[in-house]
Write a structure and sequence with these properties.
6-stranded parallel sheet; Rossmann fold; 568 residues
């Protein structure tokens, strides 16, 4: 079967009511192109970006183009099967009646329909009646390494389907393309995927307004106590961890953290260690005068559904859960996350934070109250530390001594309360009063800074993840500030010497990092080069750098916690 892809992706005329976001349309086109050339394709998209919408739109396109085509969607939980079915019918109403569910827990095992949505547990032990031309694996980070002892259930299903249709394409989708203690799920000899074919991060979606920003506070500190907890297969021993976190002092810390930092918020999601720990937490919140309810795996499905529906309707304030809401659960209402579950897994950490980043009218951000040091352990959830090599370690956060807000190392002003750490500029003769005044200027939301470009250059660069990029290095001097600490311009990767600002921007002309990044690189070139087509490689960009034309000034504008080049 030859696969084709369109130059643009739009709903069919009878389904115009559903329109993809611009980045989702770009993603679908990029995946169609990748699937034309590769049998194993990987999508990395931040939680809340619409992964289920993306692969539903992809299935719709293929099956409208090739009416005899069959698509399989593989999930690891019943809830994700139902979510995939519902999203597919939302994107493509005509799919109703063409979907077969293969999920033993739903007492439905039907593999004769052209679209089969099933759990890995069920399909690993059943014979699939049809050839599957495209298999979509939801939460693809669950696929094990090919060298693991004994094939995983995912590998059993994939191999079984390949025997029936050897040229089957596999699309993996995930927000967290890494495993506990073994690094990324791509790029190594024994990984199922060779690389990421399209990537859009949490920061990308925050910048474009599709996710809300994250505010995080260290609400308690338990580092010393965690040192006594054993680890099992790279994660904390759950029994010991539950016993520790169920101590009265830590239960009370959770209640106190909510009282101190988040009491004005009425859509609270709490992550607990075990069922016993969750029930103790729920009782503590109720005794303190708040209405809290709990969901966990031993709760019957009817009771769980009623509880989740009541939370969605705003009938109570605090929802405590154990594991069941980590993946595949969507509630834009959540504006406060209370982390009472320590984890050594960067994937679990990112998934927990991602439950609160979805946009909703009137919602400005999500507040994360970290009782267990997950932020200092893993760094920012948009680009966490992944234990693959020492080169992957990120600088992480420090904690404001006044308001307990997490502030990245290298930053010197707390964005919440204005506390100022002694900046390096002070050591060069800048008084503390001047430093404070300077930082106050930088934290005005509407400030725009213009600088004269003194010189610039473009050179090849290899990113931390091994992606080839073109790095634009710019030297500029602000006309309205004698001296700045450009570490506040964190999204540009800046430094200052003798009042001259040197900042960098990185351009992915080859798409080695993501198709999204490649699109941004081409847009930059079209805007700043004179009547030339964008280069297709980093080497071409560097060799043609003289085609770029700048006006002699650059304007930077603060956008939330980031600074962006608004005008060259």
């Amino acid at each position: 079967m030859t696969l084709t892809f369109p130059s643009s992706f739009l709903p069919s005329p009878e389904e115009q009511e559903f329109v993809l976001r611009p980045y989702q349309e770009d993603c679908v086109v990029a995946l169609l192109e990748a699937l034309q050339n590769k049998r194993r394709v990987l999508l990395e998209m931040a939680t809340g970006g619409g992964k289920t919408i993306i692969f539903s739109a992809l299935a719709k396109h293929y099956m409208e183009t090739y009416p005899k085509m069959s698509v399989g969607i593989l999930a690891h939980r019943t809830e994700l099967v139902l979510q995939a079915r519902d999203k597919l019918q939302k994107v493509w109403p005509s799919a109703y009646g063409r979907i077969g569910i293969a999920c033993a827990s739903l007492q439905k095992v039907n593999t004769e329909y052209p679209i089969i949505i099933g759990t890995v547990q069920t399909l690993a032990t059943r014979t699939v009646a049809r050839d599957i031309h495209l298999l979509i694996v939801d939460e693809a980070h669950h696929i094990g390494k090919l060298t693991d002892v004994g094939p995983s259930q995912y590998q059993i299903v994939i191999e079984k389907l390949l025997l029936k249709y050897p040229t089957m394409r596999v699309l993996g989708v995930t927000a967290t393309p890494f495993r506990l203690n073994t690094g990324y799920i791509y790029g190594h000899e024994n990984d199922f995927f060779s690389d990421v074919d399209y990537r859009i991060t949490m920061n990308d979606l925050v910048e474009e307004g599709w996710l809300v920003p994250i505010r995080a506070k260290e609400a308690a500190r338990i580092d010393d106590e965690l040192q006594s907890i054993k680890t099992t297969e790279g994660e904390y021993h759950q029994g010991q961890l539950s016993e520790l976190m169920s101590k009265k002092v830590h239960i009370q810390s959770a209640v106190n953290a909510y009282k101190e930092f988040g009491e004005s918020r009425r859509n609270v999601l709490v992550f607990a260690v075990t069922i016993e720990h969750a029930e103790v937490l729920t009782d503590a919140f109720n005794r303190a005068g708040y209405e809290a309810r709990v969901v966990h795996s031993k709760l019957d499905k009817g009771a769980r559904t009623r509880t989740l529906n009541s939370f969605a309707e705003g009938k109570f304030d605090i929802l405590v859960n154990v594991g069941v809401l980590t993946e595949g659960w969507d509630s834009p209402r959540v504006d406060l996350i209370l982390m009472a579950r320590p984890t050594l897994s960067p994937g679990l950490f990112v998934q927990m934070v991602g439950r609160g980043t979805r946009i909703r009218e009137g919602k400005k951000d999500v507040l994360v109250l970290d009782l267990v040091g997950n932020f200092t352990r893993h760094g920012h959830p948009s680009d966490p530390t992944v234990s693959e090599s020492t080169e992957d370690e990120h600088p992480g956060f420090k904690v404001c001594p006044i308001c307990r807000t997490y502030v990245p190392h290298g930053e010197y002003l707390c964005p919440e309360c204005g506390y100022v750490w002694q900046p390096p500029a002070q050591k060069k003769g800048l008084s503390e009063a001047d430093a404070v005044a300077l930082y106050e200027i930088f934290f005005q939301e509407d400030i725009k800074l213009k600088a004269e470009i003194l010189q610039w250059d473009m050179e090849p660069h290899v990113s931390r993840k091994g992606n080839r990029m073109a790095r634009l290095s710019v030297f500029a001097r602000f006309s309205n500030l004698d001296r700045i600490d450009a570490k506040k311009l964190k999204s540009l990767g800046t430094c200052v010497h003798d009042g001259v600002l040197n900042f960098f921007q990185y351009f992915d002309f080859e798409g080695t990092g993501s198709q999204y990044g490649q699109k941004k690189a081409k847009q930059f070139w079209r805007m700043n080069a004179t009547n030339t087509n964008p280069p297709g490689t980093v080497d071409m960009a560097v060799s043609r750098k003289n085609e770029l034309r700048f006006t002699g000034a650059v304007e930077l504008k603060r956008d939330g916690e980031f600074w962006k080049v608004k005008e060259w």
